Amino acid sequence: MYDFKPAAPLASDELYRELLGAADALTAGEPDAVANMANVAALLSEFLPDLNWAGFYRVAPAKTGGVDELVLGPFAGRPACIRIPFGIGVCGAAAQSRATQLVADVHAFPGHIACDAASASELVVPVLRNGAVIAVIDLDSPSPARFTAADAAGIEALAGLLADRI
Ligand code: SME
Which domain of life does the UniProt lineage start with (predicted)? Predict the structure, then answer.
């Protein structure tokens, strides 16, 4: 059994240092992308308080072929929408712009996709490999304005670590 969860609430810097260390330990030397995303989704959900969804959308071809879109990957939370076109919703905005989306109030975000009515704020970070987006990491919270710049920086560091492991 792996027990990576911090024993007590940690300050943000320390929390992300531990989270990255655990993610590194679990994914180092493992080439299977699904296994790595699954373990990291579980870590996110264990480490970060006040989330109702944590996981991945991967860039993959549309069902009809051709254009790429975001396709649901490993996650912790309620069942979610499976396919999201680039440019749609918070995840699609992150994929299209290749930039982190820190959204304090999802209901004010144009085109927000409500997978879980409980979600109030959201953080989506693109995973870039050689400058191209290969996935996004999506965190949802039932609390408004749950995510800070420190969360964005921590998840961006995680995305950097995972770029060649997923
Ligand atoms: N709310 C997201 C969709 C994904 S779910 O939150 C899991 C969005 O607007 O992109």
Answer: Bacteria
Which residue, 152, 5, 154, is CA-closest to 76? 5
Q: What is residue 161's predicted lDDT score, i.e. its pLDDT?
A: 98
In short, whether 118's Cβ falls inside 6 Å of ligand 1 is no
pLDDT score of 20 more than 90 = yes
Residue 151 near ligand 1, beta carbon < 6 Å:
no
Domain ranges in the chain are 12-162
Sign of the dihedral through C-alpha 111, 166, 99, 132: negative
* CATH architecture of the domain formed by 12-162: 2-Layer Sandwich (3.30)
Query: Which residue's CA lies nearest to atom 6 of ligand 1?
Result: 115
For 145-157, the pLDDT digits (tens) are 999 999 999 999 9
Write out pLDDT tens, residues 96-114.
999 999 999 999 998 888 8
| Atom of ligand 1 at shortest range from CA of 114 | 1
Beta bridge partners of 129: 132
Pocket mutation for ligand 1, best pick of 56, 70, 112 (most atoms within 8 Å of C-beta)? 112
Confidence of residue 4 (pLDDT cuts 50, 70, 90): confident
